[in-house]
Amino acid sequence: MCAEEENIQIDWEKCPIHNTLEAIRGKWDYKIILSLNQGSKRFGELLESLQGISAKTLTYSLKKLEKKNIIEKNVYLVVPAHVEYTLSNKGMALKNVFHEMRKWGRTWEK
Q1: Pfam families per the record (predicted)?
Q2: pTM
Q3: Which H, E and C letters describe 80-108, residue by residue?
């Protein structure tokens, strides 16, 4: 249970807020999601749009987000190989979460 009242023991493993934050907690995770929010991107396009990330870190983060079913890796069987990353339905559902976080940030973090 994710307590919404005072003095209640919180079971973090069952708390939807905790689980949502865990899904996007990596330094680059939310940035990758926001970048893909603009549409599908190839690895190089993501690398270019995320200033300061290394190729190794991007690879790791993409695999992690894919494993969590937040993004999808689409491989096109052409020569040369063509791979694009896109948000899954689960990833697209984060749009509203980020929208609310943006509103909160604009209101309170001035």
Answers
A1: HxlR
A2: 0.84
A3: CCEEEEEECHHHHCHHHHHHHHHHHHHHH
Residue 21 lies in a domain: no
- For residue 86, the enclosing domain spans 28-108
Number of domains the chain contains? 1
The two three-digit tokens of residue 72, written as one number? 């999808």
Residue 72 pairs in a beta bridge with 86
How far is the C-alpha of 14 from the C-alpha of 35, rounded, in Å? 29
pLDDT, one tens digit per residue, over 38-64 is: 999 999 999 999 999 999 999 999 999
Residue 56 inside a domain? The answer is yes
| Segment (H or E) for 23 | helix 16-23
Residue 12 lies in a domain: no
Distance CA 36, CA 46 (A): 8
